[in-house]
Amino acid sequence: MRRTIAGLCLALLxxxxxxxxxxxxxxxxxARAREVVARWDGSAGDRAWRSGxxxxxxxxxxxxxxxxxxxxxxxxxxxxxxxxxELPANPLAAARLRWPDGSASEVPLVTxxxxxxxLSKPADFIEEECPAKGCRxxxxxxxxxxxxTLTTTRGTIRVxxxxxxxxxxxxxxxxxxxxxxxxxxxPQAAEGESEEVTGFDLVAGKPHDLLLEYGHGSCDRIHxxxxxxxxxxxxxxxxxxxxxxxCNLMLxxxxxTVTLARPLGxxxxxxxxxxxPVVRGVRPPRK
Length: 287
Description:
By secondary structure, the chain is mainly β. The strands form five sheets. A four-stranded mixed β-sheet has the order 3-6-7-8. The chain has four helices and 14 strands.
């Protein structure tokens, strides 16, 4: 587990001399893992992660278009919309969501008019402004209630979504219709804590092994991964050691495996750096 360094590292071009260099001993890792387990087990975050409605990204992350024309994406980003049809405005009944474990829950929905009012706003940060003569307007020709896929802490589910037709754009614009009040925010790391393990996956044919994804500096030495296990949780860590001297600032993404005492089962994987769950899924290695 990497030690927290107070202050800023001085960089000249790509050269840096961030001076952390001490490894965390097995005893200190276990102490940290016990602290992480005690803080997470039974907490509000734990209850929400296991039984609440917590999207892994933003509620609208799967929204918008699939492969839209460049002009449409730019116009949407800049909020250049025109409403050319009357939208349903009546309140909707709550929707029943079905979870992969067979359970169900009800969530309130937003109207098409409320969804349009939100999606037609310009982005908070506009990197590429509209051309001088303006973007091509996005003319909304109607909306219908459909469904889309959403990834949550409890698995992938189907959720209600408003599907907006836009003149000149083939795919419908998708806006998740679940009201924000139904969502529990994803837990955040405490100040001073940094993520070590960024993702994990199961290793095919090896039920005791986990594949861990992590970031490291170009000059770091990697001494392997470690795991601390309880009946409900697994805390993981990558044992890294900095060079203690000048190095470039490039962050490298790598993968390693750690062997558990027993198969993971339904236990949550927690990152020792943040004390928060590690999301299943790793990026494919570069070819």
